[in-house]
Structures are given as structure tokens and as C-alpha cells.
Amino acid sequence: MAMTATATARLVSPRALSRALAHRIRPPHTFARRAASTTSQASSQGSNRRSLILATAAYASLFLASTGLFAVYYFDSRSAIHRYILTPVLRHTLDPETSHKLAVKVLASGLSPRDPLSDDPASTSR
User: Fold this and answer.
1) Consecutive 10-residue runs of the chain (126 residues): their mean pLDDT?
2) What backbone torsions phi and psi does residue 93 show, to the nearest 5 degrees?
3) Could you tell me the residue range of the domain that residue 48 belongs to?
4) Does residue 9 lie in a domain region?
């Protein structure tokens, strides 16, 4: 006759189970042992903290520089992002009326790209 797992578990008394698991549980009065000298650990922790601060500062500086360069690139009307990325995304995701309204709102808010070069005097009218 085969016994199921639940039937086997019922045969073990709680006292026998606690005795069997007693060697696996550490008594509450025992603590993990520490190294005899912590001076090398303290100095390595300080250097780890300094290297973490330097790495964070380097990443923050890189992020700010790349954000500034992207803003300069975005506000240049001759950049390829407008022709090859933003315009196709607007065409494929929104209907023409909605994309036109969005473009007008962007132009009105001042977030539109600007032409950094001055106009040629030959192209002006009288």
C-alpha cells in the first residue's frame, strides 16, 4: 500500500520534527564571528565608498554633458533626428490632424528647432 506525502507527514509527531530540525537552527545566543582586526576592512570600506562617489560623479557628469549635447543637437533645425525619427514617428503613430495639432503646440511652446544661420540677403523680398 502506497502512502502519500501528506499521510507520511502526519505520521511524524511535532516533537520528533523539532528534534530533527534542532541541529539546523542556530541558538539565539550564538553570533557570527568577526575578524580579529578590522583596520584593513575599515580602510577598504573607505576606499570603496570613495570609488563609489567618484563613479557616481562621473556618471552624473556624463549624463549632464550628453543631455546638453542632445539639446544642442535637437534645437538645430538641420539635425537628422527631425527628418528621420520624429517626423516618421508622427506619421505612423498619429492621424494627420492630431500630428498637425501636436506640431502647432510644439511650435507655440518654443520647443521647436531653430535655424542657427542667418538668412541670405539675396532671398529677402522688398
Assistant:
1) 53 70 61 58 71 94 94 83 86 92 90 78 80
2) -105, -30
3) 42-74
4) no
